[in-house]
Design goal:
With about 325 residues, the chain is of the alpha/beta class. The protein is built from twelve helices and nine strands. Helix content is about 35%, strand content about 20%.
Length: about 325
C-alpha cells in the first residue's frame, strides 16, 4: 500500500462509526452502497468514466473566481480535517490547494475516486447521505456542485451538518437556484430545445451524445422548477445549530459574492430570465447559491448518525 494511502487509512480509522468498516479497492476505500437509485447509477457511470472525469477535473471549477470565492468562504484548508461530499475527481482541492491534516473525499464513482486519490484525498466510495464517519469530526465539510446530483438534497445536507465540529464550517456552492432556472413561456421552449441546437452547431462541454446523455441524468435537480433556495438552507441547517448565510451569485464572481455582489451572467441566462419576466440583475436571477454555515459552539448534536438511520429500501 503506498505510504500516502496507508497514512490516510490509519487516520480515517479514528473517525469511523463503531460498526463501519472499509475495504481497499485500488487507491480508494469502499464503505459500500446500501442502495442503487437511478441518480446514484448515473453519477457512478458518468463520473466513473476516467476520460469524462478527467475532463471534468481539467475544466470545471478551476478558475480564479472559484478559488477566490471558496477561500473567502472557508479559508485555508491547511491543518484542517476536511470532508468533501460528492468530491468527484477532486476539483475543489485541485483549485484551492493547502495542506489539510486529513482530506477525505466521498463519492459513488470509482474512476473519480482514483483521480482524487492521486491529488491527495483519502478517497471513500459511499453514499453522501449515509457516510461511515462519526459525528462532529470535520473542521470543514465541503459540498460543491453536488446536492443537485443527489436524490434527496436535504438528506445530504443534514449528513454534512452531522459531520461538522462545533465552530466548524459547512460550505456548499454551485447548486442551481430554483428562481433563476424556473423558465417560463418562450424561455422554457428554448430550454427544451437547447440540446438539439447544441448538437446541430457542435457546441457544448460534452463531446458525444452518450456523454451528454449520462451527464444530464446525473443532474436530477437541475431543471426548470427545481433547485435550491435560501429557505431550503435556512430551514434545514438552523434547527441543527448552524448560523447560516446564503449568497446568490453568477459564476464569474469571486470573493465579492460574499459581500452581496451577484456578478455578471452570460447573455443566454440573462435572456432566459428576461423572457420569464424576471430582472436579470436581481439576486433571484443569479445562477447559483453559496451557503456558508458555521456550527455554534453550544450545539452538541445534529442529525442522527448514518448507522442509526433506517436505510432506504
Amino acid at each position: 500500500m503506498p505510504a500516502q494511502i496507508f497514512e490516510g487509512f490509519k487516520m480515517i480509522g479514528d473517525i469511523l462509526l463503531p460498526d463501519a468498516s472499509l475495504k481497499r479497492s485500488g487507491n480508494y476505500f469502499e464503505s459500500g452502497l446500501e442502495r442503487k437509485t437511478d441518480a446514484i447509477t448515473a453519477n457512478a457511470t458518468y463520473f466513473g468514466n476516467m476520460q469524462w472525469a478527467q475532463e471534468y477535473l481539467d475544466f470545471c471549477h478551476r478558475d480564479a473566481h472559484f478559488k477566490s470565492r471558496w477561500l473567502a468562504a472557508a479559508g485555508d484548508w491547511t491543518d484542517k480535517v476536511v470532508i468533501d461530499l460528492g468530491c468527484g475527481p477532486g476539483n475543489i482541492f485541485a483549485t484551492l490547494g493547502g495542506k489539510p491534516r486529513l482530506l477525505i473525499g466521498v463519492d459513488v464513482a470509482p474512476g473519480s475516486l482514483e483521480l482524487a486519490a492521486k491529488l491527495g484525498y483519502t478517497a471513500v466510495l459511499a453514499d453522501a447521505a449515509y457516510t461511515p464517519f462519526r459525528s462532529q469530526v470535520a473542521d470543514i465539510v465541503a459540498i460543491n456542485a453536488s446536492l443537485h446530483h443527489c436524490d434527496d438534497m436535504a438528506a445530504v445536507l443534514r449528513e454534512g451538518a452531522r459531520l461538522v465540529k462545533p465552530h466548524g464550517l459547512l460550505v456548499t456552492d454551485h447548486d442551481p437556484q430554483l428562481t433563476a432556472w424556473d423558465y417560463k413561456g418562450l424561455a422554457k421552449l428554448m430550454w427544451d430545445a437547447r440540446l438539439w441546437v447544441y448538437r446541430a452547431i457542435g457546441h457544448g462541454f460534452h463531446k458525444t451524445g452518450s456523454q451528454q446523455s449520462w451527464g444530464l441524468r446525473t443532474e436530477v435537480h437541475h431543471q426548470p422548477g427545481d433547485g435550491v433556495t435560501k429557505e431550503f438552507f435556512h430551514s434545514t441547517l438552523e434547527p441543527l445549530g448552524f448560523e447560516v448565510r446564503v449568497y446568490p451569485h453568477n459564476h464569474q464572481i469571486g470573493a465579492d459574492a460574499l459581500r452581496g455582489v451577484v456578478g455578471p451572467a452570460q447573455w443566454k441566462y440573462r435572456l432566459g430570465n428576461m423572457l420569464s419576466g424576471r430582472r436579470p440583475s436581481s439576486p433571484t436571477s443569479a445562477l447559483s447559491l453559496m451557503c456558508v454555515a458555521r456550527r455554534r459552539g453550544d450545539c452538541v448534536s445534529a442529525a442522527p448518525a448514518a448507522s442509526e438511520q433506517r436505510m432506504p429500501g
